[in-house]
Write a structure and sequence with these properties.
10-stranded mixed sheet; Threonyl-tRNA Synthetase, Chain A, domain 2; 4-stranded antiparallel sheet; single chain; alpha/beta
């Protein structure tokens, strides 16, 4: 073996590739291994048959011999006529050229190699076609064979050189150099493949999402909540699904995973500034089953401390365990729930929290004879509180008309005063007025009263039609926001026939659904949110009584929740009595100017027959015996029935009904007071 000296670090490409092919050490290395070569590269001793010129010489000799055989076969008649033999030779050459082109396709061969292995077979086919007609020993045939051999031998040297350089670049591209200079040192073994451990929960959720038709949606991560956990679902990157599509599949997800009915809910994924993301959403899993629990209204010291209408107050717990709160500032609310779903219970919870506010005046319309409001004014009627929680209570259609028109008069008065710039901020001096309407359908519903008032034209306000009340009430809701006058309306159905028309309903931005009986009623509550409407339809069984859905307000998650339970029968009355007594000092008063403006507006409206009332000597004021006698006694017929105080869970217990709801039931029905209680004392 000879040794050829080469410049340090610069072995030729052909020598490097040859060394890789012929070295025994290199044969044991991986295909992609390329060592660091020394200054001298040993070249193996080559015989004459391995020289560069000999390869094409052997190929040319084989073609020349094939030409002699073809010519002899044609002359002997073994092969067909010369024309067909030429055609077959050309086709054979073309097939061989195509095979050479396919064999040299890919990154491992250079362009010179592809040309050589394509043109060479084609030329051989043409030569064989020619010798089918003329003798291979003729002068033309011998010149053609010699020229092709010389051209091929010269070209083959260039082909080999270019191919060696190309192979070197190809090998180096995937090579890994060993740390030492010794070429024979084995390359380090590749690390074992690392397989990602598949989380069983991730696999379970991905399979469930695919089964319910949400292909491409993936489990991203899980976080713990106060009542279970939440799963962040990444939506299909192709944009086929929106977060609402996940909400539509909640029932299917529960069935596929064998979960309890109603334990899943959907919530948009939001940024820190409250903006919703469109490519992911949360699926909430209620492990504690919040919607089936009985969550008592807190009765500690914090539940009776003063607060402000500007702050949110808690009314229950969302299904993920977080507090469910409302802020009834600059917004009107529509609360919908069929009989026995907990509207009256929620009414008491809201009154409890609003009566703590030092900048709120509460007015209430209760056309069920004052059943819901009587317990709240009982401490004042019995002399245990200096003032009632409600500043004004209307239990007749006539009194409700006066209250609604008084609200309009207050809006006009505050608007003309121009306080607070674009809107008025509530304070103890200029408090917010909240008009609570229990059973809105009894006031403005289609079947509430005759379409025309039964009284004469100048006395229509004593028994107005539904349209005569719904018009002014709609104006109050429309115009009252900037003047701190808002409404909280309770009704059994949100249809226009029971809610005073579409104009009144559309102004109630805050919607609370407590349960419906059919799909149409659910859609009427949440008209522009079919996901919430579908959730609301599920809140109709016994275990979810008191559960609700809130749209707008302080519910960016759109989760269902359970309202506080205010008590049942005597427990409820004791809780109301305590709250009304402790919260009486907190309630605010309208300013003297505003009271005077309301009094003048009502006296003008009624022809001096009824006013708002200022002081103890006010004539026919809102707490006078003529207008509020039934609030001082039971004043209800013996056969009066209502479900307002039925138990929120289970069947109604004994004692529920008229007697349980009457705060002054110890007083006989026949007792008729001779004078009204003293006017509410103004807060110091």
């Amino acid at each position: 073996m000879t040794t050829t000296s080469r410049p340090p670090g610069h072995p030729t490409a052909r020598a490097v590739v040859r060394e890789l092919k012929h070295s025994r050490a290199a044969a044991r290395l991986p295909l992609t291994f390329l060592g660091t070569y020394s200054d001298t590269v040993p070249e193996p001793e080559q015989g004459w048959q391995s020289h560069m010129w000999s390869h094409h010489a052997f190929a040319s000799g084989a073609v020349f011999a094939a030409g002699i055989a073809v010519n002899a076969a044609v002359d002997a008649g073994v092969l067909p006529s010369p024309g067909w033999t030429s055609f077959g030779s050309v086709m054979l050459g073309l097939f061989a050229a195509a095979g050479g082109l396919l064999a040299t396709a890919g990154d491992k061969f250079c362009d010179w190699s592809r040309a050589y292995f394509t043109v060479g077979p084609a030329a051989a086919g043409i030569y064989l076609a020619a010798v089918a007609h003329v003798s291979p020993w003729s002068t033309g045939s011998l010149v053609a064979a010699a020229a092709g051999t010389a051209l091929g031998m010269g070209t083959y040297y260039k082909v080999r050189t270019e191919q060696d350089d190309h192979e070197l670049k190809y090998v180096r591209r995937f090579a890994t150099r060993p740390p030492g200079p010794d070429r024979t040192e084995a390359a380090p073994a590749p690390p074992p493949p690392v397989f990602e451990e598949i989380d069983p929960e991730k696999r379970k959720w991905n399979e469930a999402l695919a089964k319910v038709g949400l292909k491409g949606c993936k489990f991203l991560r899980r976080k713990e909540t106060l009542a279970g956990y939440a799963v962040l679902v990444g939506l299909d990157p192709n944009g086929r699904y929106a977060p609402e599509h996940v909400g539509d599949k909640l029932d299917n997800l529960e069935r596929v995973q064998g979960m309890l009915r109603g334990c899943l809910d959907f919530s948009p994924c939001t940024t820190r500034d409250g903006r919703e993301l469109s490519d992911r959403c949360w699926v909430i899993v209620d492990v504690e089953d919040i919607l089936s629990q009985l969550i008592e209204m807190p009765d500690d010291d914090a539940a009776h401390t003063p607060t402000t209408i500007k702050e949110a107050f808690r009314i229950g717990t969302f299904m993920d365990g977080t507090p469910m709160s409302l802020r009834l500032r600059e917004i009107s609310a529509l609360i919908v729930g069929v009989r026995g779903r907990g509207k009256t219970n929620l009414f008491h919870v809201i009154v409890h929290q609003l009566s703590r506010c030092v900048d709120v005046v509460l007015w209430a319309i209760d056309l069920k004879g004052g059943r819901a409001v009587k317990p709240w004014i009982a401490p004042w009627l019995e002399g245990r509180a200096a003032r009632p929680v409600f500043d004004w209570v209307a239990t007749t259609r006539g009194e409700a008309t006066l209250m609604v028109h008084a609200a309009l008069a207050l809006i006009r008065h505050r608007g003309n005063a121009g306080q607070g710039g674009s809107k008025l901020e509530p304070s103890a001096e200029t408090p917010a007025v909240l008009l609570l309407v229990d059973e809105l359908a009894a006031l403005v519903g289609q079947h509430a009263s005759p379409h025309k008032s039964r009284n004469r034209a100048d006395d229509w306000w004593r028994d107005p039609s539904a349209g005569q009340i719904s018009g002014p009430l709609t104006l109050v809701v429309q115009l009252g926001r900037s003047e701190c006058v808002d409404g909280v309306l309770f009704t059994q159905r949100a249809t226009v026939t029971m809610s005073g028309g579409g104009d009144l309903k559309s102004q109630c931005e805050l919607r609370i659904g407590l349960g419906v009986t059919n799909t149409q009623d659910a859609s009427s509550v949440f008209q522009n949110n079919q996901v919430n409407a579908k959730k609301l339809r599920k809140l109709k069984d016994q275990r979810t009584r008191g559960a609700c859905l809130i749209e707008n307000g302080l519910n960016p998650t759109h989760l269902a929740g359970k309202t506080f339970f205010y008590g049942d029968d005597d427990a409820m009355l004791r809780r109301i009595d305590k709250a009304a007594t402790l919260h009486a000092p907190y309630t605010a008063d309208l300013s003297l100017l505003e009271q005077q403006a309301l009094d003048e507006a009502l006296l003008e409206f009624t022809g001096d027959e009824a006013g708002y009332g200022i002081g103890d000597d006010a004539v026919n004021q809102r707490w006078s015996l003529e207008r509020a006698e039934h609030l001082y006694t039971d004043g209800l017929p013996d056969d009066w029935e209502d479900d307002g105080t039925d138990a929120l869970l289970g069947e109604p217990t004994s004692g529920a009904g008229t007697g349980a709801a009457t705060a002054t039931r110890a007083r006989p029905r026949s007792a008729r007071p001779t004078s009204a209680p003293p006017a509410p004392a103004r807060r110091a």
